[in-house]
Amino acid sequence: MSQLEGGAPLTRSGVGKRIWDLFETDPGQFKKEVIAYFATAYPGFTVVRAKYPDIYLRDDRRQSL
User: Fold this and answer.
1) Is the pTM of this model over 0.85?
2) How many CA atoms does the CB half-sphere of 16 hold within 13 Å?
3) Quick one: pLDDT at residue 63?
């Protein structure tokens, strides 16, 4: 896990080359695909930051209880 400046710990994950390639060629599509990927793979987590090769996620599952 990682942490951004005094906040809650973040989960670090990643995506495949096909999605990372969009980062440079089509940033809008990159963002859409990353959000869609993690909505399926990590329900209840929010994408906070993308910095190659990591995607940082915040766990929001407890907020929805």
Assistant:
1) no
2) 3
3) 65
